[in-house]
Amino acid sequence: MKRAYVELPSECWELVFERLHGDHYQFLEAVSLVCKSFLSLSNPLLLSLTVSPHSVPHLPRLLCRFRQLKTIVVAEFCGDLHAVLSQIAGSELRLQSLHLSHQKSIPVEGIRQLGSTMKTLKSLKCQYFGRLCDGDLIEISHSLPWLEELDISYSNVKKSSVSGQHLTDAGIEEMSRKLRLLQKIDVSGNQYISDRSVVVLSSNCVFLREIVLHSCCRMTPNGMVFALCNSANLVSVSVNGLCLHSPIFGCPLEFIENSFMYATALTAIKFSHTVITDALLCSIAKSNVQLKKLALYHCQNFTMMGLSSILHAHHQYLSEVSLNRLLFLTDQRMNDLSMCLSNVTSINLSECYKLTNSTFFILTKSCSSLTEIIMESTSLGKEELVVDLVKNYRVRSLKLAKNISLTNNSLIKFASVCPNLQLLDVSYCNGITGRGTAEILKSCNEVRHLEIIGCGGIKSLIETDSKLSKLRVLKAGGSGIRDEGLTMVAKTCPCLLHLAVGGFDGLSEKGLKEIARRCKGLREIDIWGRLDFDPSFVAWMVSSGPSLRKIIIPFESFSRGKNQWDSLLRRGCLVHYFHVGCRLD
């Protein structure tokens, strides 16, 4: 007797595919190959596309296939950028965001074409351009007057003394008259703009909500004060390098302190490398703002009194707190402050060198809403206070890199109080060995992302009779994992998507063959060290791992096989290279 099969409605399949897409888009590649119906249901789920020189020949088909794209990224592109933007402009997509970065100059003609067709484009990022001048900015504002977000940070990375080759206050002023709907702008790193730019932005862009002013050497506190007092919708301000404790710029201290009284919509403040005072922090505490995000990076001249006042005043609203390199913070003081952090979901205490394990356990015990703890370059591994260990089931992410005193025993304790951990970074923690990672992976079976870069004492992750079926990302470059450890990774981590591995010796093709043979879903592999591959071996890896989309290998291996990489690209895998000794990871 034949069974009757009931076909699921497309709405049900859409829910299934959305859940798969939430984990990783690569899961939908196999789905899209099943049938035309699945292809048509999965295509709309891709919302972001990154364009590389190798994908340009296929761009028309990609733009035609993925009709729901909202964001396109064109980063470090060395081809014809005008042609790419022309294709995007003619695609009839309802694009919302375009990211352009690390380009030589603004593609003026391409921007004009976008302006003639992309009326939905709200966000444009033009970061790290070799040249960006007033004329370019004016052209952007004329072509895209409906922009709401603009990032022109760190332009003119190649310094020039030629007049007219820079971005100045005049360009910002003309732009501010055109972009009346502007809500967010980042002008960081532009050395020729001053307070005048902030004044015209605050005066002309009435919807301005966020302004970022980093590394603008001609800025003074006067500009920030004007923005706070005159931008009624300002919700976020981020500045660095300012001196907010002295009237040397003609701005009285009481003006600086009282300016926050006017910024009633403010919810986020970030000061970095800035000289501030307790009086300033107390004035923010007394203001009517409801701070949700507070970041103090490498700031000076304030004390525990000022910090305590602002945290106490806004404790019911704060969700993200970053207190980096505050040398007066101790475990006892963090214990006193913990009552102000009950609603915080993410905390960053990196480079607070006096903080030990005690602070970690205070946070997990007292801050029940925490999902992320960042404590890099601290004194983790030591313990100053005796604190009860209380499980915190909300913590998902621990970033603990560069803690030279961190030991296996401490890491095992951390695992015991964070059983639902999904991301762990202990890179450059030399005291951690394979025993520590094995114990934490046993206790926390939800770990999906593990970084052990530079941990030479870790030669393997876990025993071969165990399975790490949830682990998706393993960054182990410069660790002690070699052929034997890599073979064990292949056996225990069958669902890896991204792998970075290798050092300067002890790694050969043997371990990598096991990875290619067993990790069938691997998308990207980054191979550190001086291992010199034969091009035929790289081709074998691609044929053995049909899901591979990117391989990063040493330059020596890349140059030997540069005539073969195009053939691998036609099979869907891009081969990159790096110079040994120039890693930035």
Description of the structure:
With 585 residues, the chain is of the alpha/beta class. It contains 22 helices and 21 strands. It has a 21-stranded parallel sheet. Strand 18 (498-501), helix 19 (509-518) and strand 19 (524-527) form a beta-alpha-beta unit. Helix 1 (10-23) crosses helix 3 and helix 18 (483-492) runs parallel beside helix 19. It is globular and about 65 Å long. The model is unreliable at 581-585 (pLDDT under 50).
In short:
With 585 residues, the chain is an alpha/beta fold. Residues 581-585 have low confidence and may be disordered.
Reconstruct the topology from this structure:
Blueprint: H1 10-23, H2 27-32, H3 36-42, E1 48-50, H4 59-65, E2 71-75, H5 81-89, E3 97-101, H6 108-117, E4 123-127, H7 134-143, E5 149-151, H8 169-178, E6 184-186, H9 195-204, E7 210-213, H10 221-230, E8 236-240, H11 253-258, E9 268-272, H12 278-286, E10 293-297, H13 304-313, E11 320-324, H14 331-337, E12 346-348, H15 357-366, E13 372-374, E14 397-399, H16 408-417, E15 423-425, H17 434-443, E16 449-451, E17 473-475, H18 483-492, E18 498-501, H19 509-518, E19 524-527, H20 535-544, E20 550-554, H21 555-560, H22 565-569, E21 574-578
Parallel strand pairs: 1-2, 2-3, 3-4, 4-5, 5-6, 6-7, 7-8, 8-9, 9-10, 10-11, 11-12, 12-13, 13-14, 14-15, 15-16, 16-17, 17-18, 18-19, 19-20, 20-21
